[in-house]
Specification:
32% of the residues lie in helices and 20% in strands. It is of the alpha/beta class. The chain has a single domain (17-220), classed as Rossmann fold. The chain has an eight-stranded mixed sheet with strand order 3-2-1-4-5-6-7-8, with helices on both faces. α1 runs parallel beside α2 (70-81) and α1 (26-37) packs across α6.
């Protein structure tokens, strides 16, 4: 893959650790596509779901992929971008597979995200975790440096609510479908990707990024 557009700025081959994308829906599929375009040679994808018609509007999938597992559909897209990429598919989702390197939490269930962090908070093989949460127009990105126990505790403190509580404030239409628009997805993923690249390059990490795509607002801490 020709990386001359950004190789002087970011060299993906400097990363020798695993890249795990847990959840391949709106956030995860968009993130995996961006990670592929910056030249990462290998990704681990986790998702148990299949592509449905309503996924096309805000996820990376194509109409002719409806019915495929999301990991397979996404693998097909990523290898069409870079035929040399290695994709490791986990079409049962994340259970207790060993994690190392960089972990991106993209599942739409806060209980599972909290469980993954709790199970791995003392995992010495992880370098950082990156978490994404999204409403209709607003989104949040959280990150933790795994060499800093306080950073991990701070991430866990942001997860002290249940999936059912989260559903109560999630915008839905009259049919109960969760509302989502692609611009919100891509904006927060772009900020999360930049946070990851900055961490790899200089060990600098924004622990929280807040964004509203329609108020045209972003704030980082």
């Amino acid at each position: 893959m020709d990386l001359n557009k950004h190789l002087d700025f970011f060299d993906p081959y400097s990363i020798k650790d695993g890249i795990h994308v847990i959840g391949c829906g709106a956030i995860g599929s968009t993130l995996a596509e961006m990670l592929t375009r910056i030249g990462l040679p290998e990704l681990y994808l986790y998702d148990f779901d299949t592509v449905a018609s309503h996924n096309i509007a805000n996820q990376m999938f194509h109409f002719n992929q409806i019915g495929l597992t999301k990991t397979q559909a996404l693998a097909d897209i990523l290898t069409s971008i870079n035929p040399d990429i290695t994709i490791n598919q986990n079409d049962q989702g994340y259970t207790t597979q060993p994690l190392a390197g960089y972990v991106f939490l993209c599942v739409d269930n806060i209980d599972l995200r909290r469980k993954i962090v709790e199970q791995n908070q003392y995992n010495p093989h992880i370098k950082a975790m990156f978490d994404f949460r999204m409403g209709l127009t607003d989104a949040q990105h959280y990150a933790a440096d795994w060499s800093d126990p306080e950073s991990i505790k701070n991430l866990l403190r942001t997860m002290q609510f249940t999936h059912e509580e989260a559903k109560q404030i999630t915008p839905v239409n009259a049919c109960g479908t969760t509302l989502s628009i692609v611009s919100t997805v891509r904006n927060i993923v772009a900020y999360g990707l930049a946070n990851f690249i900055n961490f790899v390059k200089s060990n600098k990490l924004k622990k929280l990024i807040l964004n509203d795509s329609f108020d045209i607002f972003v704030e980082a801490f």
